[in-house]
Amino acid sequence: MLEQKQHIKLPEGSIEKDTTTLNLGPTHPATHGVFQNILEIDGERIVSAESTVGYIHRAFEKIAERRPYYQITPLTDRLNYCSAPINNMGWHLTVEKLLGVETPKRVDYMRVIIMELARIADHLICSAVMGVDTGALTGFVYLMTYRELIYEIYEEICGSRLTTNIGRVGGFERNFTPAAFQKIERFLAEFPAVLKEFETMLTRNRIFMERTQGVGGISAERAMSYGFTGPNLRAAGVDYDVRIASPYSSYQDFDFAVPVGTTGDSYDRYLVRNAEMWESISIVRQAMEKLKGLPGDIYHADVPAYYLPDKKDVYTKMEALIYHFKIVMGESEILPGEIYNAVEGANGELGFYLISDGGRSPYRLHFRRPCFIYYQAYPELVKGAMLSDAIVCMSSLNLIAGELDA
Amino acid sequence: MSLTNERIQQRLTEKFGDVLTGFEEPFGLLTFTAQKDYNLKVMQFLFDDEELRFRFLTDVTAVHYPERKGEELAVVYHLHNFQDNVRMRLKVFAPVAAPQVFTATRLFESANWMERETYDFFGIDFVGHPNLKRILNVDEMEYFPMRKEFPLEDSMRIDKDDEMFGRGGNI
């Protein structure tokens, strides 16, 4: 075939047009996770693309059908592992709604602090990695230190860093220590200057702007049709935020803005994420202020039938032992019901669709994973762009493989 | 004046009558069931109507109820009206022997992968879907793993033979 082509006499001035099929991924260093993109390229221009997923599918929805409610928390940790606490809180909020558990204000504010810190950690990595993908490693190396500070806060609160398993039905497993508050204060004191510096470095950087502006743009209508949520939808100009639309965990008590973009391209997504980090800092500050006015010893709702008792009490008090046994063996009463509850995850609306038939595990649990839903727009976003734009577009969408495949 | 669940139900029953059944509001979310062949018509009406404006498809998934004969599989749609900030849930039941349901991909781009996922796990055959093949599992799979006839091992099962673990016991 090749030989034959060389013998064909092409008319004067014509260029032989042939497209190449390129597999970008499943494990390509520039794709930040295991997903495959089959690109058809003409030179460096992308003619068409097809995305395939499922490389790390772990059947969480099926596993959840055999687990009591407490044991599902570690599964949710592994969805969006860049902001695991938000997934945990979303799950506990869903279960609490099903069980009719009311949480005290102090628990709500503590949750808000944790969720907003997780949002900062997630956006921080996404924005920094966009810098890496356009050739600027400095921001990434610099910001990693501050994600580390957030992880230290988690570690102080619950003992682990990445997959935190933070929180329980009704509140937290233990109270925030004074050291945890000190770490949060330290983060609030140090981080704004760093974020400002990071923005100075990247936001008006000529190379960064030219590499991201007009790349992967999407209109508001198309974004809605594709089911975009979170920063990706807001960058297209729709100010939909679950925290405002259906407030959970006392978000209505806080004063914050929803940053909105206009063009929906990679640059706007970056700007929206950065603006959101500033809002998150402000929310954490407000929450810290509000916590000061509340008694410091409440960290869970008073629901012995659902909240695991203190280990010390389990060893010494009969009642605590009984409740502990009932919860661990999955024998506490759970009413049948059907519920959909959503939280604003770091990259969009994270929904939990839960059907309970009164048994010890959910009859059906479905995660509405924002990544999974908007990754299908990727072929449309990169069509006609350059090969290097495909990488930037992908990192600006903030795709997390764990959430994509569940 | 924002849209209430009563108003939505009123508009829907005016338009479709007996096609829609089982209106209820678990945890404040309007839920109802449509006849299998009417899922698209109902969604199109909800989408087009200037008052209802359900133009965001939040989620598509399915549930398997093996004990309901003739309607074992339920396809569940969650729709959202952004302007009035109202959510609702639409259900369609299909028999496991003939799980054909019309696709919503013409109406919402987002339905594409969500329906592929639902097909992958429950075997619901979305009629008219442009690319209905497995998405998370391998292509060679011949069964639909989220159906209830494929249970996971229960960690709390009582048939474990304790004798094998040096504790006496019986089967």
TrEMBL record, chain A:
The keyword Lyase does not apply. It catalyses: a quinone + NADH + 5 H(+)(in) = a quinol + NAD(+) + 4 H(+)(out). It is an enzyme of class 7 (translocase). It is a peripheral membrane protein. Its EC number is 7.1.1.-. Residues 133-405 form the NADH-quinone oxidoreductase subunit D domain. It is found in: Cell membrane. It holds the Pfam family Complex1_49kDa. Keywords: Cell membrane, Membrane, NAD, Quinone, Translocase, Transport. The keyword Repeat does not apply. It comes from the Bacteria. NDH-1 shuttles electrons from NADH, via FMN and iron-sulfur (Fe-S) centers, to quinones in the respiratory chain. The immediate electron acceptor for the enzyme in this species is believed to be ubiquinone. Couples the redox reaction to proton translocation (for every two electrons transferred, four hydrogen ions are translocated across the cytoplasmic membrane), and thus conserves the redox energy in a proton gradient. NDH-1 shuttles electrons from NADH, via FMN and iron-sulfur (Fe-S) centers, to quinones in the respiratory chain. The immediate electron acceptor for the enzyme in this species is believed to be a menaquinone. Couples the redox reaction to proton translocation (for every two electrons transferred, four hydrogen ions are translocated across the cytoplasmic membrane), and thus conserves the redox energy in a proton gradient. Belongs to the complex I 49 kDa subunit family. PANTHER family: NADH DEHYDROGENASE [UBIQUINONE] IRON-SULFUR PROTEIN 2, MITOCHONDRIAL, NADH-UBIQUINONE OXIDOREDUCTASE 49 KDA SUBUNIT. NDH-1 is composed of 14 different subunits. Subunits NuoB, C, D, E, F, and G constitute the peripheral sector of the complex. This is NADH-quinone oxidoreductase subunit D. It comes from Chitinophaga nivalis.
From TrEMBL, chain B:
It comes from the Bacteria. It is a peripheral membrane protein. It is an enzyme of class 7 (translocase). Its main location: membrane. The keyword Transport applies. It is found in: Cell membrane. It catalyses: a quinone + NADH + 5 H(+)(in) = a quinol + NAD(+) + 4 H(+)(out). The keyword Oxidoreductase applies. InterPro entries: NADH_DH_suC, NADH_quin_OxRdtase_su_C/D-like, NADH_UbQ_OxRdtase_30kDa_su, NADH_UbQ_OxRdtase_CS. PROSITE patterns: COMPLEX1_30K. Its EC number is 7.1.1.-. Residues 33-154 form the NADH:ubiquinone oxidoreductase 30kDa subunit domain. Keywords: Cell membrane, Membrane, NAD, Oxidoreductase, Quinone, Translocase, Transport. GO terms for molecular function: NADH dehydrogenase (quinone) (non-electrogenic) activity. NDH-1 is composed of 14 different subunits. Subunits NuoB, C, D, E, F, and G constitute the peripheral sector of the complex. NDH-1 shuttles electrons from NADH, via FMN and iron-sulfur (Fe-S) centers, to quinones in the respiratory chain. The immediate electron acceptor for the enzyme in this species is believed to be a menaquinone. Couples the redox reaction to proton translocation (for every two electrons transferred, four hydrogen ions are translocated across the cytoplasmic membrane), and thus conserves the redox energy in a proton gradient. Belongs to the complex I 30 kDa subunit family. This is NADH-quinone oxidoreductase subunit C. It comes from Chitinophaga nivalis. The lineage of its organism: Bacteria, Pseudomonadati, Bacteroidota, Chitinophagia, Chitinophagales.
